[in-house]
Amino acid sequence: MSEHHIRNVLEAAMLAAGKPMSAAELAQLFDEDGRPDKAAITTALDELVALYADRAIELKETASGWRIQVRANYAREIGRLWPERPQKYSRALLETLALIAYRQPITRAEIESVRGVAVNPNIVKTLMEREWVRVVGHRDVPGHPELLGTTKTFLDYFGLRSLEEMPPLAELKAMADLNPQLDLPVADEPALLAVPAEAVDVAEGVEATEAVEATEAVEALDAKA
Amino acid sequence: MAKPELKLVPTANEASDSYESATPSQAEMPFAVVQGEPITQLPRDLYIPPQALEVFLEAFEGPLDLLLYLIRRQNLDILDIPLADITKQYMNYIELMQELQLELAGEYMLMAATLAEIKSRMLLPRSTDPTAEEADPRADLVRRLQEYERYKQAAETIDRMPREERDTWPASAEVDVRRPASTLPTVTLQEMIVAFRDVVARAAMFGHLHVQRERLSVRARMTDVLAAVEGGGFVEFLRLFEAEEGRMGVTVTFIAILELVREGLIDLVQTETYGPLHVRAAQAPRLRLVDGVSPVDTGPVENDEEIR
Question: Cβ separation of A15 and B168 shorter than 8 Å?
């Protein structure tokens, strides 16, 4: 079977399927004798990526598999195809979603404690209706509150392969120089008050036992923060 | 998301007044520049309609968001909040909300209490015991503010991420719907006939039978039989029947024949055992049937004399 044929079949399948196709699903389309192996599928997909380099479409791998999509560069013009504006999500919804995405599995109470306001039930309902969020379990505490997590649909929607592809959270800065009057017992240990990366650097110069202590202390501080 | 650039007059005023000189003063960000002059305060006589304030307050996602706004508005470091100042500003907002009789969420009141508590703790003398683990009273609030800001930023990042329906659309192509996916089996004529027979059988169950009594009179049929044997010759018994008439018709004919025999108007003749029956007009008066003997059992003519 020629590489050209494999590539065209994959392209046709992705255009016809109406959903992302995994490499395994794509391989299944071929006759059993002469079915391309995983490497051949990967090669063909790479070829398509190269072929689309100058095109308005691109090959994108999301959590559910591969799909061909319109490049975001053309969103302004293409968005005008539909009279209705794309849905805008409220800050409350996006913050709730961010907490679920980065801190999953998470309970409603935990979301509330970070945001400082009660979780609007409609927001969770909307997120579930969109199938971005689902109940992944129950915390083993009184009341067995629901633990919320994100779904594959969420990753697909935002063009992500996995949660690791989420942009990193802003780093938390430690409270350095809190109060000049405050005579903190750790004041003579500057490593503890610095940001973790720097702290480790400083600790390297110190004796081994101290370094371990310092690192642990920094970790504790980080965890607390 | 940009905050509405509304400044509350008393807040801004008191902020600069009460600001402790120990902290390096940070200028408030101007919300407008008029003829080169940065404007940081709204005119005192500016009337802010309550509805506008309501909208303004609704733009906050809770007390942490409001606090963050107050801090960021003045370019203050989140790690070193001038608590007295921020608390005062925060309380001003709360009072305004109460004056306007806005429904104040409990969270806002809780935060006000927390701020007041931290402020009072800041005023207390510190423990001189060096072993006592004493944290900055603001530490917990700072941690919460930082944590909240982190996810607030994450939410903004998520909102900017390219997403379906807004930034990208899955590409698709129409597929010709004629799909010869499976090969069809060949149907033999026999199978069709068998299938059709079943159909007919099933259809028959739903058919209506109209039963109607045929107006056949035994009398009329007797006349017909007599006419058939008229002339004295033998007529084959079976010929008297017309199969086309159906069961009813032949039964009527049979009864008519029996009746004629009983009345002695015809003779039935069988020439040999199991041989064909013949009918002829009765040769009266020589023939007379004995009562009780079935006309069919009547023997051939030769025996007539003996019976008699």
Answer: no
